Amino acid sequence: MGSLVWLVHMPLLIIGALSVAVAEPGDVNIGAIFTFSTINGKVAKIAMEAAVQDVNSDPNFLGGKKLALSMHDSNYSGFLSIMGALQYMELDTVAIIGPQSAVMAHVLSYLANELHVPMLSFTALDPTLSPLQYPYFIQTAPNDLFQMTAIAEMVSYFGYREVTAVFSDDEQSRNGISVLGDILAERRCKISYKAALPPDPTATREDVKNALIKVRLMESRVIVLQTFKITGLLVFDVAQYLGMMDSGYVWIASTWLSSVLDSSSPISHNTAKSIQGAITLRHHTPDSEKKRAFLTRWNQLSNNSIGLNAYALYAYDTVWIIANAVKVFLENGGNISFSNDSSLSGLGGGTLNLAALSVFDGGKQLLSNILQTNMTGLTGPLGFNPDRSLIHPSYDIINVIGSGFQQIGYWSNYSGLSVESPEVLYTKPPNRSSSNQQLHSVVWPGGTKIKPRGWVFPNNGRQLRIGVPNRASYKAFVSRVNGTNKVQGYCIDVFVAAVKLLPYGVPYKFILFGDGHKNPSYAELVNKVAFNVFDAAVGDIAIVTNRTKNVDFTQPYIESGLVIVAPLRKLNSSAWAFLQPFTPLMWGVTAAFFLIVGAVVWILEHRINDEFRGPPRKQLMTILWFSFSTMFFAHRENTVSTLGRMILIIWLFVVLIINSSYTASLTSILTVQQLASNIKGIDTLIASNVPIGFQVGSFAENYMSEELGISKSRLVALGSPEEYAMALEKGTVAAVVDERPYIELFLSTYCKFSVVGQEFTKSGWGFAFPRDSPLAIDMSTAILALSENGELQKIHDKWLNKDVCGSERSQLDSSKLHLNSFWGLFVISGVACILALLVYFCMMLRKFSRYFTEVHDPSIHGSSRSARVQTFFSFVNEKAEVSKSKLKRKRSELSSDVSRRELESTNGSERIETGSDTWLH
Known about the structure:
- By secondary structure, the chain is α/β, with parallel strands linked by helices.
- Helices cover 46% and strands 16% of the residues.
- It has 31 helices and 34 strands.
- The strands form ten sheets. An eight-stranded mixed beta sheet has the order 8-7-9-10-11-16-17-18, sandwiched between helices. Strands 1-3-2-4-5-6 form a six-stranded mixed beta sheet, sandwiched between helices. It has a five-stranded mixed beta sheet with strand order 30-29-31-26-32, covered by helices on one side.
- Strand 14 (375-377) and strand 15 form a beta hairpin.
- 39% of the residues are buried.
């Protein structure tokens, strides 16, 4: 009976819902399926009618034909949408605009495929409407794949890692959120919770309230809302009632909200209040004269009943896309004709009369013309990529403020987020670098400009469960307080200090992991964090590759790495141990300077000091004796020259430093135990067949067996420092491989052992958190702050004092003295010697010049240069008193000669005068 009633009333429903334009013979019929009571349905109706009017205003545009537009109101009903589409197929319709929802697009696309009628929609933007499955369905606006990419890039730009998705449970919203999850995963972000609502507009206030109460209990405070106007505004209203529009929340709405803002101006006070601080997207349409003219014309077209939004522009352009495709079709000789579908011939009769459905013969060619569109419309350049997506997909990013909104930037598939318009960016090379991604400041919910953290601890009263290894050894790092469940140690103090620096409270409790009799498996502890048994793990946990695949670690709070510790045997002192303080080069340079300084002093003292004169053999022995006796400050020869004394003072200072250093070094060598080991490093350890010890629970076992290829039969598990020492002393193991912090603590007590070779892995210790946990990032920041303010070092010194054997080992590496430590003293001494010799040489030249001029006969002045040089060396070699005596004697002889000549001259004059007088007389 019910089926009969339905069949009787169905034709009435179809007739009531279908508004068919009066089509004259020869008109080109197109249809439109929308819910005209919605915002997008209202603006689409006005824009499509205006577009048809503009196309028909030129009677020659379609070769004398006109467009005839039939509009079908689906009234939110999928059934009526199907009926309208079937009705169009009986009216020889060449193309259909719509449907409005993706739900119907999935259904009606099968009809379009069968009857070869292109179906164009600018609102059914479900990214899963594949052109391979639905070849006759075309989206004339950017589909939600691009919108979700823009949202994901905003989430990543603001530094958020988790979002909560609230959406209507229909194909378009559900599939859009699914795509968002995939895109977020590419950026190491995720949707942590999905709240599905009944399809728009059937969701009630109670439905929304129940969903948002669950959302409020979640950790994430970044909420993406993908729905439509009625449900979307209801969500914001309930969110405000629940206090979810206050500071700390982030709301990102899809394009439905921008349509409300554009078309419902002004919006009501209550609505404006409930959406404050929200961010939304709007399809970007570049400014142009054509667009401005249409904006001016819109008020007349709409009678000021509704504002213009982007979907109205896409509706207008969609009509023109069809009109241009039909024009090309007709100009190329196409004929609009239809033929019966043979597969439906057996379904004739009845109310539906399915046999009347006909196939558009030119549908394939018209579809091809549509996809080859190359024009400029109100929304900018129009065309399709090879994957049938619209060219240049882009969005305006809008922040709701007060009773309006402000634009904070753009997103384009070309360059991502930017404060420059896409048209400007298209003129430049694409740049998606992080430094190029920019947005203006945002006013967030609650009226704050401070970016919300984006997450909080779940508001369910549960403390964080922190897993802590219940160690049996090395309890300075982590240990259980006797008789209680409390824990203490270096790692615990670092964690507590870091938590205190967080700008929010963190409720937590420590849970011991392990029985306390042996060290637990750290790999298992980390896995329990990955499987949410623990919310975090705190302790001496090494950051290694296998663990980072499952959890996120904080910044390392201490450096670590595997090292080798081995037993060391004492080296017996040799008969030549006294030579060990200096390196061979140091010995050679020191000996050379002893000889050099002795020779320089001999040169400076030879002419004036009797102690530095005598036969050549004696002078050589004097030089050698003087040189090496200065080492013990036992030289007997006195220096009398100023230059000689200056050189000797400098050299005695150098000798004092060398003697002191030699004595200290030799004392260290003879008193400090010298150590050596047969194991030199990891290479010799791998090449040998000796047993190797490792700490129970450490990753060292797997690393040595899997990475280094050491047989597990050689590996011996050890549980404590005492077991280390016992095994090494007895030879149970030849060496122990463990992390440096443990070994340093071990060696601070056991001085008979030492690290051999170099550290052969580099890592650190950190706290483990679940993947993508925001707390891991904040804790890393806190650890860096502890390091900068010195608190981390104070905690280290409190628990890890390892200086007991440190002084002894440090002396082993510094027993030999190198030339580098003394080259400055040798340079000073050498420069002083050179300067003294230069001054002495100049003085000798001056004295020799005077001496040579006065003592030697003028006839010698013309002698050879070699003779003069010989004379110079003879002058230098002879004693100063001898030279002075010769010079004095020569001067006396010259004075006597002068007196005798003067006397002879006087006598001769007298004789001449006497002779003259006699002659005169």
